[in-house]
């Protein structure tokens, strides 16, 4: 499901189930949208359950069951990750509250040198300020 250029949208009790052979299939992608509220969703994908793209603001995701999948990701920055040599951007005021995770390998991942290519260039500096 692709949510683009929306304002004040609520999705309640949505079920998304992508077959296991559908690789790189996000459940819900949100881009350039404001005031999106997702609640009570059940999402099973082989990629991000929910991904937030550029220009997304005031997004509230709650009571979502995700799995299998990569969880909630910050867009193509995904899982709070950046690509080497990517244009500058800001991911700010992110709150993770009252989360229950079972059998999760990496609960919260921040990767500033994300690269799935074997010969990726990782010579770029890290530019994060992280407070936990």
UniProtKB/TrEMBL annotation:
Keyword rRNA-binding part of the UniProt annotation: no
Localization terms from the record: Secreted, Cell wall
Keywords, ordered alphabetically: Cell wall, Cell wall biogenesis/degradation, Glycosidase, Hydrolase, Secreted
GO biological process, one term: cell wall organization
Annotated Pfam families: Glyco_hydro_28
Matches recorded under InterPro entries: Glyco_hydro_28, Pectin_lyas_fold, Pectin_lyase_fold/virulence, Reg_chr_condens
Catalytic machinery residues: 70
Keyword Cell wall biogenesis/degradation tagged: yes
GO molecular function annotation: polygalacturonase activity
Similarity remark: Belongs to the glycosyl hydrolase 28 family.
Descriptive protein name: Polygalacturonase
Organism annotation: Quillaja saponaria
């Amino acid at each position: 499901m692709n949510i683009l250029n929306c304002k004040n949208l609520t999705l309640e009790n949505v079920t998304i189930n992508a077959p296991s052979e559908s690789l790189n299939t996000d459940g819900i992608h949100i881009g350039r949208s404001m005031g999106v509220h997702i609640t009570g969703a059940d999402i099973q994908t082989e990629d991000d359950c929910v991904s937030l793209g550029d220009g997304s603001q005031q997004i509230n995701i709650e009571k979502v069951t995700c799995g299998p999948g990569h969880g909630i990701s910050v867009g193509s920055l995904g899982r709070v990750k950046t690509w080497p040599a990517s244009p500058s951007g800001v991911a700010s005021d992110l709150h993770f509250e009252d989360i229950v995770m079972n059998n999760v390998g990496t609960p919260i991942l921040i990767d500033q040198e994300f690269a799935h290519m074997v010969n990726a260039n990782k010579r770029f500096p890290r530019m994060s300020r992280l407070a936990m």
